[in-house]
Amino acid sequence: MGSNMAEQHPVGFQWVIEAKERGAKVFHVDPRFTRTSAMADRHVPIRSGSDIAFLGGIVNYILERGEWFEDYVRHYTNGPVVVGRDFRDAEDAAGLFSGWNENDQRYDIESWAYDQTEPETAGGKREQRSEVSGEQAHGAHGMKLEQGDPPHVDFSMEHERCVLQILKRHFARYTPQVVSELCGCSESDFLAVAEALCANSGRERTSAIVYAVGWTQHTVGVQNIRAASIVQLLLGNIGRPGGGILALRGHANIQGSTDIPTLYNILPGYIPMPHPQEHPTLETFIELNGPSTGAWGNLGNYMVSLLKAWWGDAATAENDYCFDYLPRINGDHSHYAMMLKMLDGGVKGMFCVGQNPTVGSANSKLIRQALAKLDWLVVRDFQPTETGMFWSDSPEHESGEVRAQDIQTEVFFLPAAAHTEKEGCFTNTQRLLQWREKACDPPGDARSELHWIYHLGCKVREKLANSNDPKDRPILDLTWEYPLEGVHREPDADEVLKEIGGHGPGRACLPSYDELKDDGSTSCGSWIHAGIYADGVNQAARRRPGREQNWIAPEWGWAWPKNVRILYNRASADPEGSPWSERKRYVWWDSEEGKWTGLGDSPDFPPDKAPDYRPDSDATALDAISGDKPFIILSDGRGWLFAPTGLMDGPLPSHYEPQESPVVNPLYPQQRNPVRQTYDRDQNRYHPVPGQGGEAVFPFVLTTYRLTEHHTAGGMSRTVPYLAELQPEFFCEVSPQLASERELEHGGWATIVTARNAIEARVLVTERIRPLPVGGHPARPVHMVGVPYHWGGRGIVTGDSGNELLPLVLDANVHINEYKAATCDIRPGRRPRGRQRLSLVADYRRRAGIDR
Amino acid sequence: MKLSVEQWPAAYGEDAKPRKGFFTDTSICIGCKACEVACKEWNQVPPEIEGFSGHSYDNSRSLGANRWRHVAFIEQRLPADTNEGASLVQAAERGAAVDAGLASYQEGEGMRWLMASDVCKHCTHAACLEVCPTGALFRTEFGTVVVQEDVCNGCGYCVPACPFGVIDQREDDGRVWKCTLCYDRLKDDMEPACAHACPTDSIQFGDLGELRERADARVQRLRSEGQDRAHLYLADSDDGVGGAGAFFLLLDEPEVYGLPPDPVDPVRDLGSIWTATAAAAVALGVGLAAAIVGGRK
Amino acid sequence: MSQSDGAASPARVSQRDDAASPTPAGERGPVSYHGQPVLKEPVWSWEIPCYLFTGGLAGASAGVAYGAGVRGWETLSRRAWLTASAAIAVSPPLLISDLGRPERFFNMLRVFKVTSPMSVGSWILSLSGATISVAAFHDWTGRLPRPAAVARPLAAVSGLALSTYTAALLTNTAVPVWHEARRTLPFVFGAGAAVSAGGACAAATPVDCAGGARRLAIGAAAAELAVTQLMERRLQMHEEVYRSGRAALFSRVSRGCLVAGAALMGARGAASRRAAVAAGALLCAGGLATRWSVFEAGKQSAADPRYVVEPQRRRLDG
Questions:
Q1: B164–C71: do the CB atoms touch at under 8 Å?
Q2: Do B111 and A33 touch (CB under 8 A)?
Q3: Residues B229, B244, B116, A547, CA torsion sign
Q4: Residues forming a β-bridge with B206
Q5: CA-CA distance, A745 to A769, in Å (whole number)?
Q6: For A163-185, what is the mean pLDDT?
Q7: Is the pLDDT reported for residue A635 higher than 60?
Q8: Does A283 touch chain C (CB under 8 A)?
Q9: Which of A147, A342, A345, C222 has the fewest other C-beta atoms within 10 Å?
Q10: Nearest-CB residue to A773 (from B34, B37, B103)
Q11: CA dist B260 to A434, A673, B169, Å?
């Protein structure tokens, strides 16, 4: 669900094909019939943005029929945990959970806590601030617990406030009929999925769920994944071979760039970025961000080692290991928040590295208007992209709204090396790091990112060399020495990896994060990667062929943490440590040896902690987790069916309609996610809510997606003839029914209009897109317009960009835009040129009553 | 009369290698087109941007001088699932509801999206090779059919000779080009670029005999799973081209994929062609003689 | 590389519009892949149908010349050698023009392959060219008597082959309308060669010396009309190729020219040189149009997948 794996991850999809060959059943639940659907045993179409309803229906199916994995749920999840008295479910409050603050449009999460505990919130503020992410808002990774165990647990799971009972009530209305009417799929399709999942889960069997940006790019993106987590935890499909929830990333190494982040709000290894007022010292930072129990209980070790990696000898106990050198987070600096600030003149300059936001980001016109407010812009890419050339070449130049001489932004283009022209790691979806060698030198002035950032740092340090200003110390004190190679003085990427992997006294490489200390004796650039250079060997560069190992292939590359291939794999054994079944054995307790053993994977558990281990009352960190609690990253060691902290929009997923939808939410009066981030301004108007008039102006669902043949915003594929020829023109996909309703000619042109912009596309009329029957008695067809978004104004093949159409509206937890569901109108023929394009959009806005 | 230029493997003597080929299993093709791109990259085949075709996701249209692998996309509506025992009237009602967007299409009928990577067949009896007047087309030690680009004369005779419409001229100097089964890679014990790039092993490369065994097993399995139209195409040595080095597992009739259902090497009929030609020449001689000899000045 | 013009494509798309209405699986009908051809159209250009004509004209004229010589009809023989040598002289340039470069014609002579009518034909053309040239040279200059004595019969015999091998060239392809005519097309081409040779020689020769040529022209025209009819009828479904497009146009022109030419030749050919010239021109035009019709039919037949798929499907289904 939410993934078009065959098209977007064709190389990984070989394993799905192989699983199918071995008898696995593959279901594809997706609004469109794609190349993935073509390979699936069954395709189940659902309306874009209705995933939680579908998954909620599965949860209801499991609970109603008693299909859950009893022992797994009882011992490994928080199903038996009792929640506090003040909690009110969304079922009882018109779609809002308890703690809703109407004035601030945010939740106070205190009432979501386990009975007799308090949720830990940053700086003691319980009301969540949407400027930062959910995790950030109330302390990373869990609440404070004594002994790592919730105080009130009912192992019979019959207490009316225990999580399992709350779940039952929350999802009781997600019946097959409601799912069918809401999602537009048939009841039999839905039931086929639910039955297959249940039949293929349990002691003897496991099932996996694969998702990608089809789930994340919604105003309920995080809750989509939460819903899948509930399904998989109930069925016992986490931490076991053949199970799991596989997050396919948007493109190569996105996983790597969140682990060692290019994000504004976390430090390497998912350590939160410090806040200026709430984290005055290292001690308060650790106290407020690390629950004392679980793997995060050792946050101090991770943090001090990180500071030592960055500032080396300058970081001492006396100066808080240079904790003050770290930047502080003072608000939402996520992508779109930054763009809007830029639009308002609040940003002077931007480095745009390997990104093409005027094609790849929503509301492209707004993005271009924002870029025009910059003093300077540096673009590092293979080609001068649409972003790099926004000042001279854009739809607004064509329409006459903008002239090149009026844009004052100074733009620098720096050619970048391709992945074959530099060495380093890729991290794939299963956290597997694979080292790749450089095949050849980059041409001309093209350089690697490492080269660029290193030498930029050197130049800045040179300029500051004589400064006595304390604010320059963080830069001057950085450990910034790497061996340089070749005529271009390329820094040695291997040395960087060594720094990330960590070392102890005497620069001995660390074997794992267990060795990290908070006394300054260890240094580690990313605690989750500790051990990647164990024994002085680049573990990620290992390439022992699979045929020379067993199927787990632990000596191919290296996976964080500790080369664990299946996270929480303690769950593959029962509470006593024996495999759940012979067929599905993976990691188990060897009582004779007194350690965890298995088929070859590293146990994701303290290696000698017996199943019957129970913590002392003063135990902290991993020691506070019992021997039968596999989810060691969480403070209670349990998989969370119910999330007492960490989320902005509720402890349980509820179906909310997308920001723009032709359908009234049939489940709750609350139409949309109450905490979604909206930016209703002239450049970013939203379409009317159904039932309030004007919605008929934009009657069709609009969804955007990608094709195998192109790469994201096209900078790497529209410029390559062999790829460009495979999908040479921008097109939209519509059903034969919609085509006849709107007189769209197959192979001809259509104009697609939203309140943001109007674009033109060639028309591909296809049975693969079907109107879906939505609502009951009688159902009405909801039509969808599908738009692959890869095109732009530059390259060998060009076209309008699909993202011109979309509004900015974000999931509050992670600030991801809703690319997958909006509304639009479609009409035959090419779009108007020049200023008439503006008039067309203005006319639509007027008719929809949103031209304030 | 049977005329033939078969010289393989005898002509190579001890240098002959086991016959190599492709087994393209279209049942697991995901339409990623990596084969098209890998082929062009390796063989430096010129790009050819032909614009939006509207032929499903196929914008490269067909094999040709500048396209040695081509992935076909066929969208099909499948009839209602007869297992559910629906009557014709019920099926029609459901079909109408689906068309009106009032029922999910699985209730009425399903979709099938066939994808298949096409390539030169490297026929056992290869017309292109047989009709080539210069010997530019030849059979390699691997039993494959390759154009020697430095010998090709640009006469274009092989183009209409091919019963699959594979080989074609380039517009520049009229020489013909087609898949070489990566002859250069084969010589270095490497598999062809397309097979190497194929993520799902839809394109399998190897010794032809072994590939055929594998294909037989595969087609039997698919049939046992209810894919009753699955069949092998060009895997039979008794067919019109003597079987092919590149054969296919298809899920529908060959013509659906743009392939001729019963291709025949036209040179198979060359005996009768020459006989008829000789007879016509004799007849012409007789006619001439009759006109000249049998009359007055 | 060229990016196709956006405006040009929709027409193409709407003709091949089956993505909008996919073929139902399980139903067998005239099936193709998005309406696209299975075969590649012959790549040859206008030079080839011209050569089909000039080759036949040269070959059969050589036969006329030899026969007339044997009968001692000096004038007809001389004019026929002239016709043959003129026709043979333009043939290689036509082929070279199609091939692109002169040396490519000579490359043809590096091998001899019986499976390749083009290879065989290259040798036939060379032999005819050489022998006709020598014979004609002797005929006009009186030089090289001994080689000419050998060349004349050789020219006549190779001329027969030159007139008919081109049918083998076409029928030895996968193009359905050609391949299916493999037993009749050689006779069409043979008759056509005789028509054009008869017509040309009758036109080139004073009427009182051209009786043989006239008889040949009239008889061959009748034969060509008959065998063409036979060929088309035996083509079964492929016959409709000759009923559409440019093939039909040239076919009609051919029939008209042949009937008119033969009639005129018969009625006035013996009386009026002017009429003989006109009749000869009509007959030659008819011969040329026949070749062009066959050539165009080949292209049309290859371009329409039905002609490939349907007969093969019928064969399979028994």
A1: no
A2: yes
A3: positive
A4: B21
A5: 15
A6: 97
A7: yes
A8: no
A9: A345
A10: B103
A11: 45, 56, 21
Question: Across chain C, how many H-helices and E-strands are there?
Answer: 12, 0
- pLDDT tens digits, residue range A299-311? 999 999 999 999 9
Interface contact A33, partner B, CB < 8 A: yes
Packing angle, helices B270-293 and C145-171, rounded to 10 = 130
Order of strands across the sheet with A558-559? A424-427, A432-436, A558-559
Chain-chain contact of A745 with C14 (C-beta, under 8 angstroms):
yes
DSSP B19: P
Residue A145 tokens, joined: 């617990």
What pLDDT does residue B280 have?
97
Neighboring chain A residues of B32 at a CB cutoff of 8 Å = 6-7, 10, 35, 708
- Type of residue found at A330: N
Give, in order, the Cα–Cα distances in Å from A800 to each of A339, A361, A415, A758: 21, 14, 25, 9
- B173: three-class secondary structure by DSSP: coil
DSSP code for A379: E
| Chain C residues within 8 A of B289 when measuring between CB atoms | 67
SS3 of residue A616 by DSSP: coil
A340's enclosing H/E stretch is helix A335-343
* CB contact (8 A) between residue B30 and residue A17: yes
Q: Tell me the C-alpha distance between A218 and A523, whole Å.
A: 39
Token digits for C182?
A: 């493999």
Residue A278 burial (10 A CB sphere; 0-12, 13-18, 19+): middle
Does the beta-carbon distance from C6 to A728 stay under 8 Å? no
Tell me what pLDDT residue B104 has: 46
The verdict on a CB contact (< 8 Å) between A6 and B106 is no
**CA-to-CA separations, A135 to A444, A811, C281, in angstroms, rounded:** 44, 13, 94
Cβ contacts of A709 on chain B, cutoff 8 Å: 33
Q: What was the pLDDT predicted at C129?
A: 96
- Please, are residues C144 and C134 in contact by the beta-carbon 8 Å criterion? yes
Structure tokens at C177: 């309308």
Scan for tokens 């509801």, then name that residue.
B97
Assign residue C171 a region (left: φ > 0; alpha: ψ between -120 and 50; beta: otherwise). alpha
Q: What are the chain B neighbours of C316 within 8 Å (beta carbons)?
A: 261-262
Instruction: Examine residue A151 and say whether the peptide bond preceding it is cis (omega within 30 degrees of 0).
Output: no
Q: Is C173 in Cβ contact with B161 (below 8 Å)?
A: yes
pLDDT digits (tens, 9 = 90+) for B90-133: 555 555 665 555 554 444 457 889 999 999 999 999 999 999 99
β-partners of residue A678 are: A809
Is A765–C14 a contact, with Cβ atoms under 8 angstroms apart? no
Q: What is the rounded distance in angstroms from the CA atom of residue C197 to the CA atom of residue C84? A: 8
Contacts of A418 in chain B (CB under 8 A): none
Per-residue exposure over A381-394, b if at least 16 CB sit within 10 Å of its own CB, e if not: bbbbbbbbbbbebb
**Subunits close to A (at least 3 CB pairs below 8 A):** B, C
Phi, psi of B205 (to 5 degrees): -115, 145
Return the residue of A nearest to C5 by Cα.
A729
Least confident of A45-49, A542-546, C99-103: C99-103
Asked if B72's CB is within 8 angstroms of C38's CB, the reply is no
At A531 the pLDDT is 96
| Residue C120 half-sphere exposure toward CB, CA atoms < 13 A | 22
Q: Which amino acid is at A503?
A: H
Burial class (CB in 10 A: 0-12, 13-18, 19+), B139: buried
Are C134 and C148 within 8 A, CB to CB? Answer: yes
Any CB–CB contact under 8 A between B57 and chain A? yes
User: What is the amino acid identity at position C41?
Assistant: E
**CB within 8 Å of chain B, chain C residues 200-259:** 208-209, 211-213, 215-216, 219-220, 223
Burial of C142 (0-12, 13-18, 19+ CB in 10 A): exposed
Task: Write down the pLDDT at residue B94.
Answer: 58
